[in-house]
Amino acid sequence: MGKIAKIEYFRVPPRWLFVKITDEDGHIGWGEASLEGHTQAVEGCLDAWAERYVGFEADDIEHIWQMCWRTSFYRGGPVFMSALAGIDIALWDLKARKLNVPVYQLLGGKVRDKLKVYAWIGGDRPGDVEKQAQTRKAQGFNAVKMNATEDIGWLDSPSKLDAAVERLKTVKALGMDAGMDFHGRVHKPMAKQLAAALEPHRPLFIEEPLLSEHIGGIKALAQVTSCPIALGERLHSRWDVRPFLEAGCVDILQPDISHCGGISEMKRIAAMCEGYDVALAPHCPLGPIALAACVQVDATCANFAIQEMSLGIHYNAGSQDLTSYTKNPEVWNVSDGYIDLPKGPGLGIEVDEDMVRELSKDAKAWVSPGFIGPGGEIREW
């Protein structure tokens, strides 16, 4: 046993927030609390919890999780749960490193030796997908994901959907699978048309076909399309996930480990999904710590399907990438659509603390982009 001696956080480019916990015996663990566009808010939450939880037993991960959740009165939501995720992931890393085992050994052990993965192509305004998909294929990927549309009006010309179909056909012609991310930017009058247009071309899944607040619309869409529906990055706890499972309107659940309370809560969400025959495909366009944490949970889940990776994602352009901030980036090497399960202790990555500290100096908080329509109206990004 060892009490928490220090909780630190580091804002680093391109848009990530790392957490380091040190116990009184010098054991350390790393977590990731990245919440794109809301970095300062998460930092404020971490400031409060750093004062509160120093002195708690670092091994008591579940106790600390429940203390954060149940003694806060106002709880849940992206900011709160991202801060909690950073602490939770770091505590799991610390404990497993101290015991010199991978985190997955503390979660019941692995059920697979390698993990199916996919990467992004196309950017926020999707284009040039053939060249980018060929690059991904050369990197070892068999599957990719791209935004289905640019910004689009609440009711727009049906012709605006034609390009999405052509992009999907282009990628499929290369022998690759492709998920189509509606990104919550497509509203109901267009979403039902887009799902129907894509369906004959068999996307791997359609993601966030409507925003999560429109569960009735998602349920209605699920009843008229055979495309697998994926969502979950904006659901932040098992209580947020439950109504979607009960409604039978999701086929692939995509919780984000940095937004849903960390390893502890993702493992619980995965178990709930298994009970509803729903696949697990964690959302992770973030940094290496978040991905490493996802991998540890993926390894233990029978219903795991595929893992998102941020390698070369457009948000990282001109900055740091997934292979930054660690001393063993080779763990992310892709072969025939898979990565091997890391074998090292803790999260299986070795964080380059010197690099983290250096690049955190004067790091700017990332600001979410937005879209403005031709009439000056705000559109969903």
TrEMBL record:
GO terms for biological process: amino acid catabolic process; D-galactonate catabolic process. Keywords: Lyase, Magnesium, Metal-binding. InterPro entries: DgoD-like, Enolase-like_C_sf, Enolase-like_N, Enolase_C-like, Galactonate_deHydtase, Mandel_Rmase/mucon_lact_enz_CS, Mandelate_racemase_C, Mandelate_racemase_N_dom. CDD domains: D-galactonate_dehydratase. The keyword Nucleus does not apply. Gene3D superfamilies: Enolase-like C-terminal domain, Enolase-like, N-terminal domain. Pfam families: MR_MLE_C (PF13378), MR_MLE_N (PF02746). It comes from the Eukaryota. Residues 126-228 form the Mandelate racemase/muconate lactonizing enzyme C-terminal domain. PROSITE patterns: MR_MLE_1 (PS00908). Its cofactor is Mg(2+). The keyword Magnesium applies. GO terms for molecular function: galactonate dehydratase activity; metal ion binding. NCBIfam families: PRK14017.1. This is Mandelate racemase/muconate lactonizing protein-like protein. It comes from Westerdykella ornata.
